Amino acid sequence: MESSDSHRFAFIPVGSSHFHRISRIVAIGCGFACCGFIALSSLQAQETPVPSPPPINAEIDPGQADLDEAVLKRIDAETNRDLEAVAALIESALAKGLSEENDAFARKMLGSVQLQRGQGLAAAIIRLRGRQQLQAKTEAAEALSEAVKHDPELAEAHMLIAQLNLLPDGDTDQIRKSTTAAIKLYEDNPQEQSKAYLLRAVTHTDVEEKLKDLKSAIEADPKNTGALRERAGALLQKGDVDGAVKDLQAVLELDPTNQQIAQATVQQLVDLDRADEAVELLGKTIAASPSEGLYRLRAILYRMLGKEDDAFADLNKALAMQPRDPISLLQRAEIALGRDDVKSAKRDLKAATDIAPQVEQIDQAIVVRCFIAIEEGRMADAINDMQILIERNPNDTFRQIQLASLYLQDDRPRKAIETLTGVLASEPNNASVLRSRADAYLAVGEHINAIADYEKALSSIDNDDNEENQRILSGILNNLAWVLATSPQDDVRNGERAVELGKRAVELTEEQEAHILSTLAAGYAESGDFENAILWSEKAVEQGAAEDNEQLDQLKKELDSYRRNEPWREKQETEENQLPILAPEDLIDT
């Protein structure tokens, strides 16, 4: 059964209102039993002899004596056992018989007693465990059932019955029945009626029915944040994202310091690729009540938007408010790595783990440590950390690809192939993984296998508008064209197809990537069109010089080759690194 924070138990303590109601009824007309009780109290207060109560008319009220005793015991009843005794006396009085007036009073009183019992037992459920908890729940349900049986107008009892049925193994139909009764009884109390509508709403599996009750709850009490939150969830389920966000924003307007709601709303906006709106919303929340948590959250959003400087500023504010916040320190360390500031990254990582040593084992800290190792050229340490991350989440394809990339950087291409082959066993058409394995095959000179993977990757995303796939498409086109143009294996080369693929890659990158311009030139050279080969190779050299490309020397050598009417040939063959990878306990301390 669905539930949310807004439906947690809010047990209503028995206050003086119940006693005043009973006293008022007693004072108005419970016969001489009432008079005897009032006189007894009064005389005791004056320390005078207590007269005997008037004689009971056994014919009219045979249960009057038990009722009188129940009234007396009710005042001092504190424990569940005391209340049970009072209830037993009232039930005895009813069984023996009472006048119409006293019968009505007795039933009202019995309902009140059973409500108080139910409230006490329900409150005990929270602190009890196991069999005792189940017993308390059962007894509470029985007491409340008796309460509404004898006094159907006890709205509190109806609501508490509904709340009890929110617990595991509760009865959804009973929740609806009880909340429906409470809704009618609370006609003059809109705030309580709103709570009843909200409680009934969570029982509906039909979204429209749920929204109907939630609308009534909000109309009864526009400040019912629980109903607004619940309606936001129902609207999302229906696909009305704007309506859901509007409700969540309304919650924040009512309670701008509610970080939980702020985070939930932000997450909804992020999921909808509306991070700018999320940043604006957080700005309002921070203005109302600045906190390190909200600054940290906005910093994460700024990073998603590529605004690293703004993120860095927010993290500094978060740390100014809470200098011992390890998560903010780790976030700042990641930004430092992006700025190639390894020294600052190491300092923040150390500070975070000094504050909370257990942080060293969380994923974010391991990622920071891993990339520090990469920057320092300690590839074995980086590989070890990446393996830890993958062991924690074996289905994380992104980390698998990262591990394969680390293997390639550490001259372990066959380990990369092994890793990626494992991923492809479950995701055979994953273009990104196919492209990475093809790159690894190139590194060991297995051009036929590389081409097969590139072709399969290309066919799986060629007509796919997915942004991520479009991002890797130019790389697949370029690498496939390169091997088709430059492989030393005669049966592998295909100049015409290399030119076709190279043109597409150049178009996708708007002639801004030197190595892709170089690939098109190689395709033309393989086709024997050295005029175009020289033309595109010159563009590659020019672009390479402009971007200070690390492969500029090779680009110039390729151009010289084409000027001699010689196509370019390249066979990469990496010698496998045989050094052992350190175990986690042998990692170098960063």
From TrEMBL:
Q: Which InterPro entries match?
A: TPR-like_helical_dom_sf (IPR011990), TPR_rpt (IPR019734), Ycf3 (IPR050498)
Biased-composition ranges for Basic and acidic residues?
Answer: 563-574
Instruction: Report keywords, A-Z.
Output: Repeat, TPR repeat
TPR repeat coordinates: 225-258, 292-325
Q: Which PROSITE patterns match?
A: TPR
- SUPFAM superfamilies xrefs: TPR-like (SSF48452)
Official protein name in the record = TPR repeat-containing protein
